[in-house]
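Hi R.,

Here's the chain you asked about this morning:
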Amino acid sequence: MEAYATAQQVWTAGLVFVRVAAIVMLLPGIGEQAVPPRIRLSFALLLSLALYPVVAGTLPPLPATVGGMGGWVLKEVLVGLMIGGLMRVMLSALAVAGETVALQTTLAFAQTANPLQAQPGTTIGAFLILMGLVLVFATNVHHLFLAAIVDSYALFAPSEALPLQDAMTLMARTVGQAFALGIQLAAPVIVFSLVFNAAAGFVGRVMPTFQVFFAATPLNLLFGLAVFALSIGAIGLAFIERYRESLGVFIGR
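And here is the predicted structure, written out as tokens:
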């Protein structure tokens, strides 16, 4: 291969591809289960070739042993999976919000394919996740993915030790923030459900013979979906703003 590229260039490009491929396999949108793995790897290869001139100076020289090469490759895979996982975890806030809204509106049994979880989920949760993916690309937030990949070589330099403790702390904090954001996004429906159920319970106590369940369930569904429809614009704006802030952890500008 010396006629086309030196061994050092092949090694450097290979390390770039390892980290980028691990990130792309989990990246929101292109990393969904519905996208064939070959398409994801092909995209990762093209992205690696584009990023190679930018990050090549931060990568280590070619090790003298196969074991040393394996250690570097494993380290880059772990870093890539961590970064891709963090980008995906924040998107799960919409799944939490959808599940919460479905529970409050008695639609938890309405199941459909969930593109994020690769398994059946609530219809409202699947709708919110698809809306989130559309917003990510419609507002050009996916451009921050590329910036995060480039800046990750400064934040997690290959020549430095892997900060496992800091990575686990960041992951735990991100999971907590995603869950809290999901509950906040579903807060209007939660508040309505509390007020409505309290009123239905009061009616049941005042008129014990009245069939509260049969009368309240359709109204709970109707008004709950109405509150959800009125708040869906605010849900999208709040999510995309918080998602931008979460990506700022990897972007040094």
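One quick note: The chain has a mean pLDDT of 84.

Cheers,
M.
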